[in-house]
Amino acid sequence: MKSKLIHEAQGERTFVLIFNTGDQVMPNLLSFAKERRLSAARFTAIGAFRDVTLGYFDWEKKDYVKIPVDEQVEVLSLIGDVALKDGEPAVHAHVVVGRRDGSTRGGHLLDAHVRPTLEVTLVESPAHLRKEHDPESGLAIIRL
């Protein structure tokens, strides 16, 4: 993965991240967030994956059910955020992918391998977002 700062104004920074074939998405996004010490950011992306594991949050179990998609797919929409969780950057992303037949699958992005590219635009906010543990859901949720 390569990255470049493309704009900076009034405390906001915009980066472009380019992933290459074989790159894992979530570990690289988290590594980037930690290296840049991001505490609040949002991102969008398009591209393609050779495989992806989606997650559906099971309310009763308070855990994600894994949904593997073991085929080449187009990333139709990938959106997410970076916020602090226990003082460290945490990445949260949702994705909708398109299959060869035009059908779609979507959910929480747990894991994915890029093929051939993923183009991410990430905007760091000057305001801090904090995630706190929500006892009802068991999730870390942004508190304003």
From TrEMBL:
It comes from the Bacteria. Residues 8-144 form the PPC domain. Transmembrane segments: none annotated. Coiled coil: none annotated. PROSITE patterns: PPC. InterPro entries: DNA_bp_PD1, PPC_dom. Pfam families: PCC. PANTHER family: DNA-BINDING PROTEIN, PROTEIN, PUTATIVE-RELATED. This is PPC domain-containing protein. It comes from Aquisphaera giovannonii.
